[in-house]
Amino acid sequence: MPTYTPPLRDMQFVMHEVLNVADEYKALPAHAEVDVDTINAVLEEGGKFAAEVAFPLNISGDTEGCKLDKTTHEVKTPTGFKDAYAKYVEGGWPALSCDPEYGGQGLPFVVNQCFYEMLNSANQAWTMYPGLSHGAYECLHAHGTDEQKKLYLPKLTSGEWTGTMCLTEPHCGTDLGMLRTKAEPQADGTYKLTGQKIFISAGEHDMAANIVHLVLARLPDAPPGSKGISLFIVPKFHVKADGSVGERNPIYCGGLEHKMGIHGNATCQMILDGAVGTLVGQPHKGLAAMFVMMNAARLGVGNQSLGLTEVAYQNALAYAKDRLQMRSLSGTKAKDKPADPIIVHPDVRKMLLTAKAYAEGGRALACYCALLLDKELNHPDEKVRKDSAELLALLTPIVKAFITDNGWQATMMCQQVFGGHGFIKEWGMEQFVRDARINMIYEGTNTIQSLDLLGRKILGNNGATLKKFGKLVGQLVEEEGVNEKMAEFINPVAMLADQMTKFTTEIGFKGMQNPDEVGAAAVDYLRVAGHLVFGYFFARMAQVALRQIAAGSTDPFYQAKLQTARFYFAKLFPEVQTLMRTARSGSKVLMDTELALA
Amino acid sequence: MPTYTPPLRDMQFVMHEVLNVADEYKALPAHAEVDVDTINAVLEEGGKFAAEVAFPLNISGDTEGCKLDKTTHEVKTPTGFKDAYAKYVEGGWPALSCDPEYGGQGLPFVVNQCFYEMLNSANQAWTMYPGLSHGAYECLHAHGTDEQKKLYLPKLTSGEWTGTMCLTEPHCGTDLGMLRTKAEPQADGTYKLTGQKIFISAGEHDMAANIVHLVLARLPDAPPGSKGISLFIVPKFHVKADGSVGERNPIYCGGLEHKMGIHGNATCQMILDGAVGTLVGQPHKGLAAMFVMMNAARLGVGNQSLGLTEVAYQNALAYAKDRLQMRSLSGTKAKDKPADPIIVHPDVRKMLLTAKAYAEGGRALACYCALLLDKELNHPDEKVRKDSAELLALLTPIVKAFITDNGWQATMMCQQVFGGHGFIKEWGMEQFVRDARINMIYEGTNTIQSLDLLGRKILGNNGATLKKFGKLVGQLVEEEGVNEKMAEFINPVAMLADQMTKFTTEIGFKGMQNPDEVGAAAVDYLRVAGHLVFGYFFARMAQVALRQIAAGSTDPFYQAKLQTARFYFAKLFPEVQTLMRTARSGSKVLMDTELALA
């Protein structure tokens, strides 16, 4: 059976030593009082919840899965899920980063980010129930009417109710412009929605008193395509004016999907049979409103794979130290044992270090993004808000795609460390791989993320935002360029940052003549950008470690950070070479393949 | 639901146009009569069996799995598996490449290779039941006594009985030297075996009248380690002198594993409770005898992933042509439809072409290896037999590890083409990924394969065998070096072949000073070698295609081959750049990580 220990020290390192979040928060009126001790204390408790309540239900939830009663349309979640959710609500966890106006605790998103990393390590399938609520909360917080906010936000904040996002239909996933669900205006200002949605995570369950569905649909006068989509709140039970729950609304689960992973989460086909909803935001502008939720969800998905990478790493490390098999190639290491622990073998270490580096790089990036979100929402200076929003928009597809692709690699390698035992369910490793698989697909496939990054976020403004990130790299070079000890960490990043400019311009130029060039290069480009960002954070982490060591610290933690950074630059970062080459090889070899793909 | 069409034309291309197997067989007395028409006719029938009998049971077998009756120790395979096996036996398929002396059809291994590729595409889990018999057959054919051959080979040839290999124990997988199962000599010359084996594929089932277990165990006077292991035949039912089945032998299934994939195959814990067996080969030399079976199994495992790559590709291609979503970046392609089929998107094509290239490269390599095996066993010239054996030994770990790593990538990408639907069981794509996962683990993990390749097969004889493969590349360069049309296919391979010499020498030199350098480089090295081999075969396939086109052929098949080869060299082959760099970055960043991996 797998184990999980919350990586609190690593989180504290990123938050307090690398990003200095408490200092940053002094400039944010909403969080000026938040100090290091508070953050650490909250996360210590949060870690206990994750490890002690959510984690023990991970394998059992996968084995048992969800069950739909086809008569009542009610879904029974796996044994223990409902109780765990009750404890989650009781502990006040849903309110962590919510607005105090609606009962929230008003803590910064960085805290929520770390808390959710731990929940995802513990139990991705369970975590999706409260996780989706959070996106619904943010969407309504940004776009709801005062009345909608008053009715829904307190219950989403307390966790009494959960939320969903209902976008996909059988014939349209990525291409939401094709969606068909209809919303008919009623005399009382509400709408009656009719249609079918699929792949609705946490669409129906037994954990909360009500479920707040955010549904995309078309008004009768909607223009075709994505400009004719509106957003509606459609609660499972009607909500009375006093906030109490009324009659059942005809939005129900018509079927549960049988999936490769996340078995503990109910992935529902939802039938809307004249379900009553209210409009969120402007008619036909639903997609823009939903994007608040989608962006939150994309960061959340990256965080899912970060969590899986960490827990898979912890278990593979423990196994590699424990499992005795063969002798080290360079001579017996454990003379008193019948064989050496497999951690002596270079390739076993490579697999472990790959997962470790991906977890640490991902954590730094994800925490940085959460800090950007805090600044976007709460910084008094408009320019800082705008810059933070822009940088966050740039980094969001990288968080989503790079961390989830890495998570797939990492969980697979951690499984591989177990040899044949990795294939057996009881060890828990194969579940991490199966759960990690969905993260590359949902909330926009990783190909879609790469097009968002290269096409919209980078070429869309002629590389201006990328230059802003480049400035951060430049700043680090300026600070540490003469520090010989930093050279091994800074040189590769600085060189890549230089190459990126030309690389981006080249693709942009080719893309103007033929847009398929952008589509052909995008996936490789995103991985290069991912390494630029990871490389930057590994250099910053090394900077902190070197400073601590120079200041006399003998804490092995800092030497460990340098070892991981060295591994990263030697074994993982160099893939940018091939990626830039394959990206440059263009679209022709893909598109001139009519006969090969006949 | 997925579909499968046997890729007969592609197989014929490799066998008859690239490898000219029928010409090669003219030099082999055992196969001198085998002609193109016979091979094609057999494979056409074999394809029907795969597509019509084995394939329809693939998803149902996965869903249903195997069931153990704990009282009788009998295993019930999924519905339909037993009937399909009966048809397989009835059709004479087990005998395809078996020795006519024992009732075999005596066809070359190339035919069996292609037949098994199709079976693996159709149903890997089912195919493992007859597949393991084949390894047992080969092992006994090479090392059994005349009496053992007479008793067992006819029944394995007819398929009345199946075989297994019983190696792994709970505490030892890779490190067979640690195994503990005991064999006590009896007065009648037999042995009583006691111990526990795990991960025994097809270890117990309801498909055959008897199961022939090949079991590794220790004699009482065995020296410790791998030099004290002997090999035994331990049948499920005793075999009487007349070949009929007698009493139950106490070797039974104590439990079935719950696995990530290949649910239709019974992965058994086997208890030997004084089970009676007979010795195969010399005492304490069991590992060498078992290696005949292991080498066959390693080629077989590569073939499993080749099959999965092909079937995943076929289904992803069909879906990509059918699924309408978004418009092409370079302008609407299907004006009459609400969206373009997703095959218009460059990255969708990249995923499809990756799978296609891996399937075609893998098929060429696997058929070539089967031809080498035929020559090793049947060529009248001893030098040819020896050279073929050596080259086959070099290529075996590449077939096992490179094709299975590629198969993991390819099945994942084909699943990705389906978007969210790829995660849903009913589409069948996620099963291909789950089934493909085990192929990187069993019969020696891919790390073990890489050590076998670099440490034993290459550095072990100072690169002499690698040079033999290099000569094949040199020959092709000589033939086509002045042909401008071949330059794009030949230049990258020729350049890599040149670089390999220095690259290998460098690692060998470092490895003499520190063996961990070999362990650190091996996995990257194997992938570089894999691309050298694939590159060579893509160049040869392009050569054939160009000659056909030059000779006036208008068959689009040949243009398609050129398109796939161009894609391969532009998008897949270039990873050798990064791999050579990371391999060269050495072991220090892996080994000096005591604190990071604390």
Automatic annotation (TrEMBL), chains A, B:
Q: Which InterPro entries match?
A: Acyl-CoA_dh-like_C_dom (IPR025878), Acyl-CoA_Oxase/DH_mid-dom (IPR006091), Acyl-CoA_Oxase/DH_mid-dom_sf (IPR046373), AcylCo_DH-like_C (IPR036250), AcylCo_DH/oxidase_C (IPR009075), AcylCoA_DH/ox_N (IPR013786), AcylCoA_DH/ox_N_sf (IPR037069), AcylCoA_DH/oxidase_NM_dom_sf (IPR009100)
Family membership, please give it: Belongs to the acyl-CoA dehydrogenase family.
UniProt keyword annotation of Flavoprotein present: yes
Every Acyl-CoA oxidase/dehydrogenase middle domain range: 165-273
Question: What are the residue boundaries of the Acyl-CoA dehydrogenase/oxidase C-terminal domain, all occurrences included?
Answer: 285-451
* Name of one Pfam family that matches: Acyl-CoA_dh_C
User: Mind listing the UniProt keywords for this protein, alphabetically?
Assistant: FAD, Flavoprotein, Oxidoreductase
Q: Does the keyword Oxidoreductase apply?
A: yes
Q: Per the database record, which ranges form the Acyl-CoA dehydrogenase/oxidase N-terminal domain?
A: 82-160
Names of the cofactor(s):
FAD
Limits of the Acetyl-CoA dehydrogenase-like C-terminal domain: 473-593
Stated name of the protein: Acyl-CoA dehydrogenase C-terminal domain-containing protein
